[in-house]
Design goal:
The complex is a heterodimer. Chain A is an alpha/beta fold. Chain B has a nine-stranded parallel β-sheet. The chains are: A alpha/beta, B alpha/beta. At the A-B interface, β2, α1, α8 and β12 of A face α3, α5 and β6 of B.
């Protein structure tokens, strides 16, 4: 799907930002379009992805998991990329574009710290100054990632306003950008925000899906029956989905964070909640109260704990091309444990949501196809960062625990 | 109740720039916010901006962020903002300054209808550009409300012309690249921006905002702008002194400033 000239996917997307940022967004859009048509830029981007980030990531036949699942599960191993997630693709693309625009400074927001670490990595690699905004609550919860960013040469600024989490870090990064837009690029971490970010981030991460599509054909001789990814802001998901959207035979599933359960109200399932509005520069689905004030999201997975979603997902939902469903914390953690035990892979809790959702759809898919289905699951990140959460969840830190 | 002509008519009729004062509704609470705005009107503002507190105020610096957080923590609602407008309207024009999502959520036409019924004159929309504003352009026409969009030092001449063409009441020139907040030196980007707006040939007056904190600065800005917009310094004054004497003195000083500017 391509947005219109002003960045609208249907009624979604666009630019709901201060006029002060419009010139910078226009400049970014112009540079981005030009760069993507320039073999020098795309060639360098591909070289960095291959030599530095370690892509194409493998499409792995998870046979023991498949036996448990009753479907052939192919895992797109984005967890094996440098920095441990799909996010490296986006930050390398944007950092290279920053150099091309002649800017020397990048700013980024981060929730759990993954995008902050990836941004700091790309900034170190390409010799850019890097400032990361992180909610004060998150800097306390994720001290190790703060240390990583600092080791990589970034400045980490704790955000002490609002809910002191990811959405407030985005607000603060936008404030910095309005002030310093002359020499600064805002290295946004997901396929959300004002145009051209949703399109640009998608295109930088779309290798996930294009690689997986070819790898699946080579491996199985056919396209998959379904593809599945987790949805926070939605960058790993749109990166996987983009290549498959034109393939009518491929069912596409996005799994939102269901937190304690959708009915409890403590979740991050903005599409399932079904209310549209504008947040962080785009029209999309978001969690809001009766007056349009943003409601805080809840998820065991910090990377999915965001009260809105990228606008292209909002559109893909409305046209019925992608099915979005919530996956609870408990379902995700069951899938997390299952993958650890069957395949010896510790996934990011984000990615465990995708896996849990995929396992859930198997019976219906089998019944419909009357054969074993093939499902590609985006294993968007590795779980090292989540061991504190997982350890607490499974009681591993309790004396005498055996799980 | 749209102003006829421009929102700055009273001041411009006296041959001086207008003083525009911003305070958020509901700060320190709904009744206190109404009292503060009345003090501001008594002490000489020509136009009131009532802020609608919002959870994600990306254009605002720390002073206004803290005030609107306080208002939200007290449970201020959109209907309280409209009630505040109704309570203070009549003596000078009153506009609402709001991020877009609360209006979107309320329903653009419904909000315009209720704002007009409350005696409000229009909306300042810091994160709504004319490119995305079709619904608001229609609703503001239907309910005869003014619409104040922003221009910035980074705006191209084409965008300034387009934006000014969609403005009614006045056009809001953000004088610095950055968020709201009082500054020691008001921006040197402002005179050039005002000149670029005037070069469009539009009759819409230009208000300059972001950074003004005293009468001297108001006089400086008023020398080249049709209106001087003050926000954070007033909010700070309300927070520092619940008796509102500091607010009254500051507005008196600012009102003197715009009367010295010519």
């Amino acid at each position: 799907m391509e947005a219109d000239a002003k960045g609208h996917f249907g009624v979604f997307g666009g630019r709901y930002v201060p006029e002060a940022l419009i010139a910078a967004l226009d400049e970014l859009d112009a540079h981005f379009r030009k760069a993507m048509g320039d073999p020098e830029f795309t060639g360098e981007f591909q070289r960095m992805l291959r030599d530095y980030a370690g892509t194409p990531s493998m499409l792995y036949d998870a046979t023991r998991l498949s036996a448990e699942a009753g479907a052939r599960i192919l895992l797109k191993r984005e967890d094996l990329n440098h920095t441990g997630a799909h996010k490296v693709r986006n930050v390398l693309g944007q950092a290279l574009l920053t150099k091309r625009m002649g800017k020397g400074r990048v700013i980024a927001e981060t929730g759990a710290g993954q995008h902050g670490v990836a941004s700091a990595t790309a900034a170190a690699y390409l010799d850019l100054e890097c400032v990361v905004y992180m909610g004060e609550v998150d800097t306390e919860r994720q001290a190790l990632n703060v240390a990583r960013m600092k080791m990589l040469g970034a400045t980490v600024i704790p955000v002490k306003h609002g809910s002191r989490t990811l959405k407030d870090a985005i607000n603060e990064a936008l404030r910095d950008w309005v002030t310093n837009v002359d020499n600064t690029h805002y290295l946004l971490g997901t396929a959300a925000g004002p145009h051209p970010f949703p399109t640009m981030v998608r295109d930088f991460v779309s290798g996930i899906g294009f690689e997986a599509r070819e790898q699946c054909r080579e491996k199985t001789g056919a396209l998959p029956d379904a593809v599945a990814a987790c949805i926070g802001g939605g960058s790993n998901a749109i990166g996987l989905f983009h290549a498959f959207v034109p393939d009518d035979s491929v069912r596409i599933y996005g799994f939102e964070a269901g937190g304690d359960g959708f009915d409890t109200g403590r979740h991050a399932s903005s599409i399932t909640a079904g209310q549209t509005g504008v947040l962080h520069g785009a029209r999309t689905y978001l969690l809001q109260d009766e007056d349009g004030q943003t409601i805080e999201s809840h998820s065991i997975s910090a990377g999915l704990d965001y009260p809105a979603v990228g606008p292209e997902h909002a559109y893909l939902n409305d046209i019925g091309r992608v099915t979005y469903e919530p996956v609870t914390d408990a379902e995700a953690m069951d899938a997390f444990a299952l993958l650890c035990r069957t395949e010896g892979i510790i996934p990011a809790i984000e990615s465990a949501h995708a896996l849990a959702g995929a396992l859930r759809i198997v019976p219906a898919l089998r019944a419909d196809l009357v054969r074993e289905p093939t499902i590609i699951v985006n294993l968007s990140g590795r779980g090292d960062k989540d061991m504190h959460t997982a350890g607490a969840y499974f009681g591993l830190f309790e004396k005498g625990s055996t799980v | 109740m749209s102003s006829s002509g421009t929102l700055f008519d009273r001041a411009l009729g006296e041959g001086r720039p207008a003083l525009v004062g911003y305070l958020p509704a509901g700060y320190p609470n709904v009744a206190g916010g109404i009292d503060a705005i009345k003090v501001m009107i008594d002490a000489g503002v020509d136009l009131v901006e009532v802020g609608l507190p919002y959870s994600d105020p990306v254009m605002d610096g720390p002073v206004i962020q803290r005030a609107t957080e306080t208002a939200l923590a007290q449970g201020v609602r959109t209907k309280d903002v409209l009630a505040t407008v109704e309570a203070v309207a009549g003596r000078v024009p009153v506009v609402v300054m709001t991020y877009w999502n609360p209006v979107d959520r309320y329903g653009v036409d419904a909000f315009a209808r209720d704002l007009a019924a409350a005696g409000g004159a229009g909306l300042i929309t810091p994160d709504l550009i004319p490119d995305e504003a079709d619904e608001w352009l229609a609703a503001s026409d239907d309910h005869k409300l003014d619409r104040i969009f922003l221009v910035s030092p980074s705006s191209t001449d084409e965008r300034i012309a387009m934006t000014v063409a969609h403005c009614r009441g006045f056009v809001y020139a953000t004088a610095v690249m950055g968020v709201t907040g009082a500054r020691d030196n008001v921006s040197d980007l402002a005179p050039a921006l005002v000149a670029r707006v005037q070069a469009t040939g539009s009759a819409v007056p230009v208000g300059v905002g972001l950074g003004v904190r005293d009468g001297q600065q108001a006089a400086t800005v008023g020398a080249y702008a049709d209106g001087v917009i003050v926000g954070s310094a007033l909010v700070q004054a309300v927070g520092d002194d619940p008796s509102l004497a500091t607010l009254r003195n500051l507005v008196t000083d600012l009102a003197g400033g715009v009367r010295r500017a010519c």
